[in-house]
Amino acid sequence: MRKMKHVLLASVAAVSCLASSAHALEYNQNIPAIFGTGGNPAQGWTTFTQDHIQLGLRAKNRTDGTTPNNGAGTYTFPVGTAPASTRAIWNFEFSANVDYNPASPGSGDAPVPPATLADYTYLLSVDTDPSAGTSFLSYNPLVFHQDNSYGNNATLPGQGVEVGVLAGSAYSLAQNSQNITFFPFLGNPLINGTYDFTFGIYEGADLIGETKMTVVVGEGGTRNVPDAGSSVALLSLSLVGVGCMGRKLKKLVH
Question: Mean pLDDT across the chain, nearest whole number?
């Protein structure tokens, strides 16, 4: 079993959380990409969907926009950087839609009260350990990233707005595309690695659901790295609004 090492990016007291929803993940789903300039593809997302909530994760080749995966949430890429760049050839991307399936007029469905992103909290866990072990940086991406793209179900591809953090009260959809080399992940794009990702949504202290994926680079991670206590300094980022994180405070599992 892979050795588990967890780093928490916020000084938040642990609280009790409900177990993850039994709803199954779906693979290779289409979600229009509202970030960028409109050239990003819609395909290749691993999603969790329940009622009016849809979460998505995917990994995408930065050069050709493909999302190579095995149909079960594992994405594969070669070692290396994109042309004329120091960034990894792949990006990881997330999507949160809290008004995904409003009742259609005349459908007979009960109306769903409009929801906004501010009605929930979010936790993105990014594995920064390229080995066969895992070391997660867990944080609220809607609080940390200042370049999220926001919109709603009517927002066209590439037409999301970037209005800084804490913009959730006006929008129901948020997305972003990040690279493992960006701060605070600081990954090395030139080595083999295996990276796990989890993206969850919470209502108060309750976990509503989450989506997961794995990215294998080159030959993948092959060794277990001992837990060295690692990046406690990242707590100085002082992320707020992270919500329920109690389930991330786990002991090492061998």
Answer: 80
Spell out the residues 6+ positions from residue 22 whose beta carbon is closer than 8 angstroms to its own.
none
Structural contact between residues 26 and 54, judged by C-beta atoms closer than 8 angstroms: no
pLDDT for 37 equals 84
Q: By C-alpha distance, which of 17, 55, 8 is closest to 233?
A: 8
Q: What share of the chain is helix, strand, coil (3-state, %, to 5)?
A: 5, 35, 60
Six token digits for residue 182: 């960006």
The Cα 254–Cα 54 span in angstroms is 33
Strand partners, 173: 97, 151
Q: List Cβ neighbours of 90 (8 Å cut-off, separation of 6 or more).
A: 59, 60, 61, 62, 75, 77, 179, 180, 215, 217
How much is the CA Rg of the chain, to the nearest whole Å?
18
Sequence-distant (≥ 6) Cβ neighbours of residue 136 within 8 angstroms? 5, 6, 7, 125, 126, 127, 128, 196, 198, 248
To the question of pTM greater than 0.90 for the whole model, the response is no
Which of the residue ranges 78-92, 95-109, 139-153, 234-248 would you say has the lowest mean pLDDT? 234-248
Distance CA 136, CA 195 (A): 9
